[in-house]
Amino acid sequence: MQRRNFLKNSSAAAAGLLSAPLLTSCKEETSTQMTASNTIVPIRPIAICTWNFENATAKAWEVLQKGGTSLDAVQQGAMVEEADTNNQTVGVGGRPDREGNVTLDACIMDKDGNCGAVVYLQNIASPVSVARKVMEETPHVMLAGKGAEQFAYEQGFQKTDLLTEKSRKEWLAWKKTSEYKPIINIENHDTIGILAIDKDGDIAGACTTSGMAYKYAGRVGDSPLIGAGLFVDNEIGAATATGVGEEVVRTVGSFLIVELMRQGKSPQEACEEGVKRIMAKNKDRTDFQIGFIAINKKGETGGYCIQPGFTYRTFTEEGHTNTPSASFL
């Protein structure tokens, strides 16, 4: 079931009779787009993700080059990392919580503002794909825990053991040496947030993670929360986040960055302001990392973080690059 189609069909039918010539002329114009400031710019397909996940952006770019949608591009790019057992921050092989359970969070958002998310999902290898099913096949935005897992099975997803031997051994070692509370530099995590613009100038985004390593059971960060870990506005741009999700949630970070771009800031300026808002609430703290990336409708990009070390990967017709982000500290 495509839940929104029914609501749209009746009004769209009448509107279509009146606007068919206009729609035809719009479809013929695929090489340029009108921005919110009424400036016509060439469409610049692009894929960009947090961290140096070159396989993810390569896959997303492959989809874009074949004429695929930005939504398909971000989903397939994120799926590459979810399936990589060497990446212990997302999907299969992700580091478990304190009880030894791998729990996954993800969200996805399309050009029309439709979105879907799953939180505390277990035994399913690709949470971003389940999130898309939530968006497209249910009247909801978010499903959690056992409900999300049951929904995944109903949609044809197979049960998968997410805890690899490598992650299991690391968890057992942590249990012997670590206190039962968050400890800096033990709970390393590199969420992948991925954004794309396709040949039609439409923007989509996705975000997926296994969350903080050895987190309290049930903990959910910013990654699956629309407006915090990810936000897309097809008129303006998109943003996504990585790092200590609690601090991103407190400032609704990705939504903030998109709104700053709406006010006229460049993606770079907006990311910098987003980090500064977080640091204003965490004066003198130097024990955590946040990184933001953003794109606007022109295909311009930006990235900024709290501490040196964060990078972001970009793929355009000009090449495939990994950019070290400027930092607050």
Secondary structure tally, helices = 9
Low-confidence stretches: 4-30, 184-188
The order of strands across the largest sheet is: 6-5-4-8-7-3-13-14
Radius of gyration: 20 Å
Strand content: 15-25%
Overall outline: globular
SSE order, one letter for each helix or strand: HEEEHHEEHEHHEEEEHHHEEEEE
Mean pLDDT: 89
- Per DSSP E runs of 2 or more residues, the count of β-strands stands at 15
Distance between the termini: 49 Å
User: How much helix is in the residues?
Assistant: 25-40%
The biggest sheet amounts to: 8 strands, mixed
What would you say about this model in short?
This protein is α+β, with helices and mostly antiparallel strands and 329 residues long. Helices cover 35% and strands 23% of the residues. The chain has helices spanning 5-28, 54-65, 70-82, 127-137, 145-154, 165-177, 245-251, 253-262, 267-280, and strands at residues 32-34, 40-42, 46-50, 104-109, 115-121, 142-144, 192-197, 203-209, 230-233, 237-243, 290-296, 301-305, 311-316, 319-324, 326-327.
